[in-house]
Amino acid sequence: MSKRKSTYKEKLNHYKAEVRYIGIDSFKRSFDDLVVERLCYFDVLTIKVNNLAYQIQCEELLSGNNRIKHEFSAIFEKTKYGFSPRIIGFSLKLWRPDDDLLKELIDILRRADYTISLIEIAVDFVTKRKGDVWKLMKLVRPLLVVKKIQNKPTFRRTIENRRLIKFSLWFRKKKSCSSKDGTNSEPKASGCSNEGCKNKETSENAVSNCGETTTQNSEATDKKKKRKAKGNLFKIYGLNIDPKKRPRKHGKPALHTEFRFEGSKKISQEVIFCLTDLVNFDFINWYNERIKIMQAPRSPIGASLRKKKKLSTKDRDVNTEYFYKEFCPKKSLSHEIYHRKELRNGLEDWTIRIL
After folding, report:
1. For the chain, which residues make up each domain, given as ranges?
2. Are strands 233-239 and 254-262 parallel, antiparallel or unpaired?
3. Angstrom distance (rounded) from CA 118 to CA 268
4. Which of 152, 147, 197, 142 is nearest to 172 (CA)?
5. pTM of the model as a whole
6. CATH C-level class of 24-170
7. Which residue in 78, 165, 203, 354 has the fewest CB atoms around it within 10 Å?
8. Where are the beta strands (DSSP E) in 151-239?
9. CB atoms within 10 A of CB 203
10. What is the three-class DSSP state of 43?
11. How far is residue 218's CA from residue 77's CA, in Å, rounded to a whole number?
12. What is the pLDDT of residues 66-102, one digit of tens each?
């Protein structure tokens, strides 16, 4: 027997139930009941050092510290024909470094030419039970606004044996690192200043002495053109909710939120220029400047939509129904409304500091 398809009204009622309006007091009570602890840390930190002499000192420092997971890799010299076999430096990748380790690294690299090429700034909202993580996600998702990322988020979830084992919400900002003429205008400097983007594209083809482009170099250029620069990313997902997998990070069930910035230019825009800026980092103010909790009043925003289409806005119920028809399938309501400038002023800014 074939399964009956849902009608439009049934779908609309289902969406209404998912994104029902809640007040600020109700949100605060529910949020405080679910969250028992907040953890702030640097999840991943990658440092590029343009001098091999410092690698031995860094290895000696990290060899006696088994708590901090780390990884070294070589940096090869880059020419207009590609990468040469000559090693000019090293890259150090750290997982969850603490202030003590950062201070020791500052002492070692105080005269080195280095840049921070990747950083992940994480905040975890720890819950009592694994099931509360999903409840917290459903509570926060419609009200969450990521100010600096305009793109619509993508939502993914995995269900096995009627059990939710994985879910995530990704806000991604992709931006080409090359300028209109195909060259990267970002200057390279030493110490704490900005470095050229790793994935930059070059407009010059590798040309031989006779002026003809070789097959090998043209293939390499095509690959570079296809490669896109990674932009800013904010993601939110359930942590340690799958009983079959080993506990990750701190081992507690939590709603994990994470900002990832790749490229020294993007990192410097977040007022992070060197390792000194990461010691005693003010997670609370930094996070609250970029994340907002806002509520969308149904009738006023519906009236704004009808007014734009030159329709009557007198009936509040009609305005509310118009709002639901426009926004109900979009589960990240406040984020999408915030980035529509004509509707932004209609949002209720609760100015809640969830951190």
Report:
1. 24-170, 281-327
2. antiparallel
3. 11
4. 152
5. 0.77
6. alpha beta
7. 203
8. 154-160, 163-172, 233-239
9. 12
10. strand
11. 20
12. 778 899 999 888 888 888 888 889 999 999 999 999 9
